[in-house]
Amino acid sequence: MIRIRPYKASDVDTILSWCQDEKAFYQWTAGILGNYPITQKEFCFAESLMPFTAFDETGIVGFFTLRNPNESLDELRFGFVIVNPYKRGKGYGKAMLRLGLKFVFEVYGAKRVSLGVFENNLPAYYCYKAVGFSDVVLDTTEKYCILGEEWKCKELIMENRFLGESEYKFHLLKEDQVNLLMGYDVNTGLPLFARMYRGACNDKSTIEDLTDLIKFSGEYFGVYVLQSNSEMTPEEIFSGYKKRWGIETFYQYLKNRGDYNDQSALD
Fold it and tell me: Model pTM greater than 0.70?
């Protein structure tokens, strides 16, 4: 399983080793980080952004950054997206981007996300399209002079297609008078959250269902389990907690970036 965490300085050697020729390096950086090959010191520029490292049980497998492209806080922009070359073509890039998108839309709360990719980098372009990015037609095409050639850049964007509060599909489960409210993404079928509460409901579940869900909740972003005795509806309670969860998760991200503890932010 692929997960993401805040970038650590100790990741730099592995990430830089993935670019073994000039063309691949400039397709990745557009020369913004410096001339090939760059040093660890030059790569430190990425730390001024919001850098993330993707990893699995074998170690580091990918890297990307996020930043605000303008004064508006409604948009984030992907940059310096790269995957271990030995992991390419196996779905790692798409999985990493989807986790990044969950952070963008569900934690940070952006309304849209954008990125640029060179026309001569078709594998990356098709990867972005596969996760839902759309082409943007600009009045002026962004161009870079690289390796004695003119490289044109494609602009892509994705609007927040994740669910708003009124778009959740609720499903009630029951076991010994403890009900479970499930929220599903209607596009993917994945649980977005869950909460337990007491009250009447019609659908039955087994204790195995609840156990499996609680185990599952630790493996994906945005899945929560809690119990409440409030007289408010589950939807009202979830709406109130949603913003608090987002703030707490982003605070945990900042705390990990500052190495204030040894934990990695996985959500």
Answer: no
